[in-house]
Amino acid sequence: ENNTVTFHDGAVVTLSGNAGNHRLAVDDGAEVTITLNNFTAILAAESWSSTITLNGSASATIILAEGTTNNLTAGRESSAIRVPQDATLTITGSGTLNAGIENGNSLAASAVIGSQYAQSYGDIYILGGTINFDFNTTSYNRNCAAIGTGIWGTEGTDNGIIVISNATLDCGGLNIGGINQSQYSNVIIDNATVNN
Question: For the whole prediction, is pTM greater than 0.85?
Answer without folding.
Answer: yes
